[in-house]
Amino acid sequence: MYIEKLNLENFRNYKSQEVEFINGINLFLGLNAHGKTNIIEALYICAFGKSYRASKDTELINYDYPCEYCKIDVKYNKNDNPHTTSFYVDKMNRKQIKNDEVKIKKIADYVGEIPIVIFSPESLDIVNGSPAKRRNFIDMICCQMSKSYIIYLQEYMKCLKLKNTMLKKEVVDDGYIEVLHEKMSKYIKYIVEFRQKIVSLLEKYAKGIELKITNNEENIKLTYVTDFLNMNEEEIKKYLDDHLYIDKLRFSSVKGIQRDDLVVDVNEKDVSVFGSQGQKRTALLSLKLANFELLKEELGQTPILLLDDIMSELDSKRINFMLKYIENYQSIITTTEDTFVNGISNIKIFKVSKGTLEN
Ligand SMILES: Nc1ncnc2c1ncn2[C@@H]1O[C@H](COP(=O)(O)OP(=O)(O)O)[C@@H](O)[C@H]1O
Ligand SMILES: [Mg+2]
Questions:
Q1: Residues 241, 246, 251, 253, CA torsion sign
Q2: What are phi and psi of 285, to 5 degrees?
């Protein structure tokens, strides 16, 4: 699968812009704050129905002109058939997403249609930051693979919110919390099994890639950390019930899949604690390429690679490895310098300047 065309109308610092991609490397080159990441963001929105960096959809509307709305249209090719997705939001926050002209009512029905892998400097949080970033990394893969996963995760989060609201009350209704626990244990069972499956698949792909980048010197191992491994629904419910007294003391839920983590070991040591900067970057590159491989194999579609400003994070050895790896697929790469493009074929370069593109 690949994206053929992107049309932006009043989106961020673009007024009206058409972009024709190649099914290869699409390089967006320009100075900072000229609109490179906005292209990545627009494509991400077409895949997930929302931005990863706007707190409100209305922020996406170009503020330089008197605009009432913004619109993103993509044309993509899947199994040799043309498809379209469009995203629209106006100043009143009325939002509409359409796929092949059909309105999307629930985002769970749509996510996964355009599979993507995004790699940006913030991705380093996966090997540096808090468990939340690593959970999010795993969840993004799971959500693109299973609509049921999205629904179970959403339902779980709704229950968790209700539970936390109750825990903050002066008198806690234990019966109400037990009913929530009953529902939550069903969702937890599904989510834990799915996460477990994805982590072991991811590890399988990441191992091979890591060994190749490091000439067999570094071994990567992934461990999914959760309290609920191999528990059935009753055992999960009992576990939640048994910890309710701590929840009450803390006025918040202490146990649940919102505490899960992923440990990334390199040569038997947790890379987030003991890894050098170079090892962290190598591990991250392996994880992202493994993410790509996993979606490609499991979905039977080649994901679109969105690489935002990562060239400055990688050394020439890792850049060359990555470019070699991705040269036969579609990628959208943003960068402030193009020193690494020599010798690469199947590349189209777009010069980005103050919200306009030239190629
Ligand atoms: N809603 C908006 N309307 C107009 N311009 C915007 C809007 N949101 C962001 N911008 C502008 O977009 C530019 C940032 O674009 P970005 O793609 O992040 O830059 P970079 O090329 O560094 O990746 C900034 O100049 C910012 O002022
Ligand atoms: Mg940027």
A1: negative
A2: -60, -45
Whether the CB of 280 sits within 6 Å of ligand 1: no
Residues, CB-to-ion distance under 5 Å, ligand 2: 36-37
Q: Residue 223 Cα, ligand 2 centroid: separation in angstroms? A: 32
pTM above 0.90, yes or no: yes
Whether 286 lines ligand 1, by a CB cut-off of 6 Å, is no
For residue 150, report the phi and psi dihedrals to the nearest 5 degrees.
-60, -45
Q: What is the mean pLDDT of residues 240-252?
A: 98
Q: Who's near 293: CB < 8 A, 6+ residues apart?
A: 205, 209
Q: What residues pair up with 89 in beta bridges, in sequence order?
A: 70, 95
Confidence of residue 302 (pLDDT cuts 50, 70, 90): very high
The rounded distance, in Å, linking the Cα atoms of 168 and 329 is: 50
pLDDT of residue 338: 87
Domains 1-115+301-359 and 131-300 belong to one CATH topology = no
The response to whether residue 13 sits with its C-beta less than 6 Å from ligand 1 reads: yes
pLDDT tens, position by position, 58-108: 999 999 999 999 999 999 999 999 999 999 999 999 999 999 999 999 999
- Residue 339 pLDDT greater than 90, yes or no: no
Pick the CATH number of 131-300 from 1.20.1050.90, 2.40.150.20, 2.70.170.10, 2.130.10.10: 1.20.1050.90
Q: Is 34 in the pocket of ligand 1 (CB under 6 A)?
A: yes
Fold for the domain defined by 1-115+301-359 = Rossmann fold (3.40.50)
**What are the boundaries of each domain within the chain?**
1-115+301-359, 131-300
Name the packing angle between helices 174-213 and 147-167 (round to 10°).
130
Q: Is the pLDDT of residue 52 over 90?
A: yes
pLDDT at 345: 87
* Close Cβ partners of 278 (under 8 Å, ≥ 6 residues apart): 315
| Sheet (strand 269-270) strand order | 220-225, 261-266, 269-270
Nearest to 177 by CA among 260, 251, 259, 258: 251
Taking 90 as the threshold, does the pLDDT of residue 143 lie above it? yes
Which helix (H) or strand (E) element contains residue 81?
A: strand 81-90
